[in-house]
């Protein structure tokens, strides 16, 4: 681990980011060139003290998940992310057509949607980053590890994960999730993470195995979704999808008609704060 070079790199990338780049107000008294340390720490989901020690060249060696969070918080390109990993004494993540690294352009869009439920997901339904409003609507979906990161996996292994949809919609959602996974499996092929997820789910869930055997295929993504919130009830929202063709990642943005009852409910999300998810028993 090259602490001096890592510290210099972090300071340089922080100075290159402006508040407007990450959806923050500039304010009349800003003297710092670029972002403040505490602002970058918040974007990375870590304490300001921990991030500050890294910039001062006296912090511990960051873990790979911590480095991935820093790469997203600083809006690094893939080349810059790889450089960050090497400076911290890790091998750079493998470069494949499918990656967990979110492109800076997608992050810039997300930063301007902080009051709107929006999130970036992989082909397998793994949530990589969310706006605060999305966490309030759906819960913090970035906290999971392993196969549990995948929405379809949680759907068939953790019944409590279905609480975000009204019960009468559960059968339809199950069919949709399996069809979307089949499309991802067809693109990735045997030996892929998608294939391993299918094998594991087939052993764990009879319902999944039965639906998988039907060979339903659907490339369409539902534009209108009904979501259930424990305090706000059912919200009917439009879901717009922006596809990054380089990575297969999707930016989902949930909106509704201004002035409607659902719009009033959306306005309350940030007041209520992150939705708590019930863990599997």
Automatic annotation (TrEMBL):
Q: Start and end of every HTH cro/C1-type domain?
A: 33-81
A Pfam family of this chain: HTH_31
Which GO-annotated molecular functions does the record name?
A: DNA binding
Q: Which SUPFAM superfamilies match?
A: lambda repressor-like DNA-binding domains
Q: What is this protein called?
A: Transcriptional regulator
Give the organism the record lists: Cellulomonas gelida
Q: What is the lineage of its organism?
A: Bacteria, Bacillati, Actinomycetota, Actinomycetes, Micrococcales
């Amino acid at each position: 681990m090259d602490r001096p070079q890592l510290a210099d790199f972090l300071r340089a990338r922080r100075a290159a980011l402006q508040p407007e780049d990450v959806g923050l107000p500039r304010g009349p008294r800003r003297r710092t060139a670029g972002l403040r340390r505490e602002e970058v720490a918040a974007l990375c989901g870590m304490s300001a003290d921990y991030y500050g020690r890294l910039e001062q060249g006296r912090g511990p060696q960051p873990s790979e998940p911590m480095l991935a969070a820093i790469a997203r918080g600083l809006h690094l390109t893939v080349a810059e992310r790889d450089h960050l990993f090497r400076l911290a004494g890790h091998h750079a993540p493998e470069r494949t057509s499918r990656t967990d690294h979110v492109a800076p352009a997608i992050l810039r869009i997300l930063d301007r949607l902080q009051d709107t439920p929006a999130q970036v997901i992989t082909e397998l339904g793994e949530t990589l980053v969310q706006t605060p409003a999305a966490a309030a609507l759906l819960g913090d979906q970035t906290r999971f590890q392993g196969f549990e990161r995948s929405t379809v996996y949680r759907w068939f292994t953790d019944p409590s994960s279905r609480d975000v949809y009204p019960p009468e919609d559960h059968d339809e959602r199950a069919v949709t999730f399996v069809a979307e996974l089949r499309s991802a499996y067809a693109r990735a092929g045997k030996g892929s993470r998608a294939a391993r997820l299918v094998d594991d789910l087939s052993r764990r869930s009879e319902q999944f195995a039965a639906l998988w055997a039907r060979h339903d295929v659907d490339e369409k993504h539902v534009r209108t979704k009904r979501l259930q919130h424990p305090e706000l009830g059912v919200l009917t929202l439009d879901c717009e999808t922006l596809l990054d063709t380089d990575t297969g990642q999707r930016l989902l943005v949930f909106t509704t008609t201004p002035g409607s009852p659902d719009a009033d409910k959306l306005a309350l999300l940030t007041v209520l704060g992150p939705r708590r998810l019930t863990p599997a028993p």
